[in-house]
Design brief:
Radius of gyration: 23 Å
Strand order of the largest sheet: 4-3-2-1-5-6
CATH topology of the largest domain: Creatine Amidinohydrolase
CATH architecture of the largest domain: Alpha-Beta Complex
Order of helices and strands: HEHEEHEHEHEHHHEEEEEEHHEEEEEEEE
Helix content: 25-40%
Number of domains: 2
Shape: elongated
Largest sheet: 6 strands, mixed
CATH class of the largest domain: Alpha Beta
Structural class: alpha+beta
CATH superfamily of the largest domain: Creatinase/methionine aminopeptidase superfamily
Bound molecules: glycine, manganese (II) ion
Strand content: 15-25%
């Protein structure tokens, strides 16, 4: 008899407790990263039916062997019909009446199909079950995140060393992806952003054919996936010299980021950490040019709970891993964002990323023209 590994058992137990508190007989997990979190099975086609004493993994024939390899302790059902029609007879057999689902991760079509197929059992919307658990990272997760960050940083150093005049944004993004994979990443945690000069005022610029040249400011936002876990970093590098206006932007954004990081510890409200960054930008008259949240959780998804923004969203808790990424953007000129990944600890926080971020270290000198 196969047994689930201890970290998975603990997660399943925590989920079941929540489900039982809500008077549910089972819970259908439909988000792929939740499925991986609760079972270790990463197949693209999958759903997990979590029952009080059984875990049922529904997938299709392409993933039969993968499911047996990664999750031998669960009961796998290889579906030949929709998930709804596959799970319906099972619910009937077990006489299950109230089945929970996550409304954020079920399409309207799936919901309608399920509701009809499982009658007289009822579907009950229960958001946030896995989200609440995933907020706090366990040892396994922090270890994976550290490695995802290490890989991203190492690849960055290599690629910056290899920069040559005329390298385009797109080529730099491709080189970063290549290096991350060479170092052991499964891939990039999101489409890499490389934005030269005025493109850097677009917070989510798409790399194009702009060449990087002497005097360029280049914003790079990238991350690696390792064992499913995503890192997320941003740096702005300056080729040979720092354009004077960028110097000012950089120093204030860095000061805002430092002020925010200094204020992170358990029980501090997220909106107060956001305010620490905004207040610092306000002193420089730049707060109106900061159009996004200060940060977000990272984990199996690149953007996950919590969100650090002006909205009250509860306090920090030890074990959260979040980005801190203030940025200011001036259309037609450019932008600066500095992003690091931070683990909330019992007494404060630990910055998990180790790349230099002081202004002078951002100047790329070794550049043969
Ligand atoms: N890479 C997207 C972000 O920083 O949130
Ligand atoms: Mn980012
Ligand atoms: Mn981010």
């Amino acid at each position: 008899m196969h047994k689930a590994p201890p970290h998975i058992t603990a997660r399943l137990q925590a989920c079941r407790t929540r489900i039982q508190q809500k008077g549910l007989d089972g819970y259908l997990v439909t988000r792929r990263t939740d499925q991986y979190y609760l079972t270790g099975f990463d197949g693209e086609d999958g759903a997990v039916l979590l029952l009080p004493r059984q875990v049922i993994l529904v997938t299709d024939g392409r993933f039969k062997e993968a499911a047996a390899r990664t999750t031998p302790w669960a009961k796998a059902i290889i579906r030949e019909d929709t998930i709804a029609k596959t799970v319906a007879p099972l619910l009937k057999r077990h006489r299950l009446e109230r089945i929970g689902f996550d409304p954020d991760h079920l399409t309207v079509r799936q919901h309608a199909g399920l509701r009809k197929a499982i009658r007289p059992a009822r579907l009950v919307s229960l958001p946030g079950v896995t989200e609440q658990l995933r907020l706090i990272k366990d040892e396994t997760e922090v270890t994976a995140l550290r490695e995802a960050i290490r890989i991203a940083e190492s690849a960055f150093r290599t690629v910056i060393r290899q920069l040559r005049p005329g390298t385009t944004e797109r080529q730099l993004a491709a080189a970063l992806l290549f290096e991350m994979q060479r170092e052991g990443a499964e891939g990039a945690s999101f489409p890499i952003i490389v934005a030269e000069g005025p493109n850097s005022s677009l917070p989510h610029a798409v790399p194009g054919d702009r060449p990087i040249k002497r005097g360029s400011a280049v914003l790079i936002d990238w991350g690696a996936v390792y064992r499913g876990y995503c890192s997320d970093l941003t740096r702005v590098v300056f080729i040979h010299r720092i354009p004077p206006r960028f110097r000012r932007l950089y120093e204030h954004v860095l000061a805002a980021q430092s002020a925010a990081i200094r204020s992170i510890r358990p029980a501090v409200r997220m909106c107060d950490v956001y305010a620490a960054a905004v207040d610092r930008l306000k002193q420089a008259g730049m707060d109106r040019h900061f159009p996004h949240g200060l940060g977000h959780g990272i984990g199996l998804d690149i953007h996950e709970a919590p969100r650090i923004s002006r909205r009250p969203a509860g306090p920090f808790q030890a074990g959260m891993v979040v980005t801190v990424e203030p940025g200011v953007y001036y259309p037609g000129f450019g932008g600066v964002r500095i992003e690091d990944d931070v683990l909330v600890t019992n007494s404060g926080c630990e910055i998990l990323s180790h790349l230099e971020r002081d202004l002078e270290s951002m100047v790329v000198e070794a550049w043969s023209t």
